[in-house]
């Protein structure tokens, strides 16, 4: 047999082999699709949800007292030096009556705020600091170095669901939404956030696709603190559905 014919036979044989492989992948391709255990799917969903929607919250009480009534008095307190509290719009301040204090500013690691209609005695203010807060602030103007038995109490640090962060997810299309959660593209997911006080009250959701009647839907309920963008703290019940 001539050498040229051997080369031709080899090329034809190799071509037939490649076509055979392509036919196998076309025929059995769906079977090669990655499957996920239900528990693993729920773990991916939970971790992705928490990573993208939970924020760190710092909570500190401020105690001070005065022997006289105070009105429109600016007082100050030094902030913790190791917590990077420097953006006044991420700080939410409440007085003893649970009312927001908007006249506040941060300068050189010191928080200045206005005390109004304060009755002589001991009072407690509380501030929250978080990336999940976008509060309004008004410069209190002239500052005072006078401190009325002022003490910054022991702080707390915890994670909470942020409706500000969840709004970012709601703005995404479905494929990008799943990518942000690192959720498999060939699987489906919906998220519903209910009020803790009324479990039938739906506060927020991301739901694009409804499961078919023959699909098994796995539901995971959580219980969580929530910090809304104004700085208020309450509780919610996230409901994550996967299939």
* Outline: elongated
User: Could you give the count of β-strands?
Assistant: 13
By secondary-structure content and strand pairing, the structural class works out as: alpha+beta
As a percent range, the share of helical residues equals 10-25%
- Let me know the average pLDDT: 86
Low-confidence stretches: 28-33
Biggest sheet record: 10 strands, mixed
Write the element-wise H/E pattern from the N-terminal end onward: HHEEEEEEEEHHEEEEE
Distance between the termini: 61 Å
Radius of gyration: 29 Å
Strand content: 25-35%
Number of alpha- plus pi-helical segments: 4
What does this structure look like?
The chain has helices at 3-28, 38-53, 163-170, 174-180; strands spanning 54-66, 73-78, 91-94, 104-107, 110-115, 121-130, 151-152, 156-162, 189-195, 202-206, 218-221, 224-227, 233-242. The model is unreliable at 28-33 (pLDDT under 50). The protein contains four helices and 13 strands. The strands form two sheets. Strands 1, 3, 6, 7, 8, 9, 10, 11, 12 and 13 form a ten-stranded mixed sheet that branches. A three-stranded antiparallel sheet has the order 2-5-4, with no helix packed on it. With 243 residues, it is an alpha+beta fold. Helices cover 23% and strands 34% of the residues. It starts with a helix and ends with a strand.
